[in-house]
Amino acid sequence: RQAMPVDVLADRLRAPAPLPELPELRPLARRPTGADEFTDVLVSALAALAGGP
After folding, report:
1. pTM for this one?
2. From the centroid of its chain, how far is CA 8?
């Protein structure tokens, strides 16, 4: 599939629309101690959206 341009991804991140519900992120968001893990998952998800590894 075609990689999403970075500017398009940035526009989506700035959009007021709520992020889609991701069940795998919900438990991490509930655990304050999971902040680093949550960030890792979020970065991985964004990389996947951008067509990264």
Report:
1. 0.32
2. 14
